[in-house]
Amino acid sequence: MKDNREFIDGIYEKYEEYQNEKHLKYKRFAPVLSLATLVVTIFIGTSIYKNNVNKPDIIINKETDATNIGTVASVDTFQNFYELLKKQENTNTNMSKSANLVESNKEIIEDTAKVEQAEYSQTNTQVDGVDEADIIKTDGKYIYYVADKKIVIVDIQNSNNSKKVSEIPFEKNDTYVREIYVKRDKLVIIASKNEIKTETRSIYETADVAYVDGIKIKTIAIVYNIQNREKPEEERRVELEGTYISSRMIGDNIYFATSKYISNALNMVKRYPIEELKEDDYKPIYLDTAISQESKYIPFNEIQYFDDTDITNYLIVAGFDIGKKEAANVETFLGAGETIYSSNKNMYIAKIITTYDINTYTLLGYNTKIIKFKLDNGNITYQKDTTINGKILNQFSMDEDTNENFRIATTQEIQGSIENMLYILDKDLKGVGNLTGLANGEKIYSVRYMGDKAYIVTFKQVDPLFVIDLSDPKNPQKLGELKIPGYSTYLHPYDENHIIGLGYDTKENGETTQNNGLKLSMFDITDVNNPKELFTEKIGNIYTSSEAIYNHKAILYLKEKNIIAFSIKTYQNQKNISKALLYEIDLNKGFILKNEYAEDTTKDYKKSIERIVFANGRYYLVSKKIIVSIDENTWQDKEKIEIE
Question: What is the mean pLDDT of the chain?
């Protein structure tokens, strides 16, 4: 009897998704498998981890120049797909010195930026006009919130009588709601779905084998009509096969991307001739209910491949208008992606490639592959791709200026040495200028671009904040540098002369440095050659953490009100405590704590405060159990709304 290869591949893909979730450090957990399936997953997954993770698929190492423009072509037929895999499998077998390994996990923390409306807050995003999905949204009249496996809609129009008016449940299937968007009378849910199928398939004429066909991971965008908030109605769904990477919303248009692991592809071409393989097993599938209620295979003549990337994954991107019934635009590539940056015009998808010595698996360094897409009213069109030296930290490592120059900061690690670089590429992703040798021996911990300046924080024992002039793309220059204890993992523009930093306070412990609570800083960059730390606020102790440290969307920032707020978790007096901290920002007086609301979560984690939003003169502290409102004038608790 042959190995249950598709089931194993499905479990391996599920293991990868779990690892990605763990790496993202999201504190939410939703079971997606039954107990019996989980047991099988643990048993088989252990074997898979040993057989696959330690022996990953390998592709030939490319040059690590500043830029290496790639080319793209159509796969066209299953025969060509098979030959591409065969070529890669043979290349891996015959390699002697170095290799590229697609890095399956990377700390991804998703975006950042504004939120400055007087009536109600918006998600803190990286680029103005480019919305990002989050677990909570408000339109000033209602709060929409992902609470475990359901979405609750809370009416906050009557500030003294707020109430939950409806919920959209997902408990009865293997659907895990990740994030949402709200635009007028439309609610868009981004969710992951796991399908387990069983069938009988003949591998050879003499052997019928019954087996589980695998776990198919899908990413779904579901559009609800919420004109009647008490009875949301599903209007449309677009499903892409693969693990969710990220999404953006521009106007009424949703753009999202997935990464689909191709089931044990290299082993299949090694073990079987093409005649014994089923073509449809290697095609990704999608569903768009605007045109059909049935899933469709994406044919090979609609799949493209890059000449310099691992081809055991599919990168699938889609765009559609939430208010129209036109077919979604779906583009598919052999390759992978893991981090998205999007301007109003273009989307860039980045993937880190790790280089090892084939014999010793010694780390030789990193490259980052970048794929550029044009965004236009729901259409998403491939433009260019390139590979640069080093690895990015997160989406804030990337930026596009008004001339469509692409700026990207990376860190290179080669056998113990560390170097940081900043590259500027033109609209065709060709190298224009670069700055290298930045803080050798230290890693980048945060990046923020503000107009023709870049601000980069590196860290080893102290926190250097670098100011970099990008006004001449051909010749970026380091202007100033500030060294202070601690380090900022997130930078937020305050005004043209000041920038806010959120990160960790640190203290030296012998020859090592350890975190000593959180740190909120205001940097004065009036003199770009001599940046200063204007004032700071140290928060908590060694046991204190915050989602805001690695997820900018967990931060509420109201520029017009000079308010910054976020939640923290800490351990004190043998209790787990969740707190919401609301600070007023005064350039003369510093960060002024206006309200500190605490919940004991030792016995009930659902009381943990996940987000803070503002609407109609009140701050709403949101947990899976209750929503607490705080009056902006008195800073007193006014109302508690039960939502569980």
Answer: 83
